[in-house]
Amino acid sequence: MATPASGAAVHGKEFGLLNALNEGGIISWATFIILIVMSIASFYILFTKLMQQQKIINQGKKVRANFWNSANLKEAATKLDQKSAYRAIVDDALLAQDQHSKLTDPVDQHEWVAGGLARSQGAIGARLGEGLAFLATVGSTAPFIGLFGTVVGIYRALIKIGATGDASITTVAGPVGEALIMTALGLIVAVPAVLAYNWLIRRNKTIMEDLGAFTNDVHGYLASGGSVKPAMATVSPRAQTKTAAAPTQRGSEPLRTGMTSTGAQSDRVS
Question: How many other CB atoms are found less than 10 A from the CB of residue 124?
């Protein structure tokens, strides 16, 4: 006579993911493998894109720290890594400026350089967006792929139950419950993909905003012959305290960074 423990062991062997895949046949196995591949690919894209984004963010910090303290763009470009996104923008800007002098049909330099910078920034944005379409596809299709596996599993389970002629709850509940595992797997694959997609999109937007600001600064520098560039001066807390405590008499107001006493734009960068 079988004991309850041995009966529980038998039921543990009869029901489960492996048994559900075997009952579903090649279709259930194919669905399971597709979901696993989609999940692995999603996490691979997530980690690789995070590393790529963080690299560009670190490059932006380096640009804000000392890039504009150089005498010219060529000298400033040497401070950046060869494969830096910011270095690519500077190189493309200098290339566009050099190409303009070789044009036989007159074209405004401002428009020519702006076009070159726009193409460079667009290429960087395209590289940042690589793989995100796959995450969106996984997030939208994985639940339906899992549901397909569930439908096939339930169909096969009902066919088997009908062949045996036993439609009791104990006979139906096990196979149907197994088939629902595929729907759960589809959701497990889809939810991280959707979260990763939204997170990466947000980080890409922030990065492209910083790149856009840097592109405008480079364009302004070239269009003005080096006269216009962002101020990098920093003021110590002690100096800020003294400035705030000083009397503000007429003609002695603190000057804004990059402005002379007459209100004109200053070329000097601290």
Answer: 18
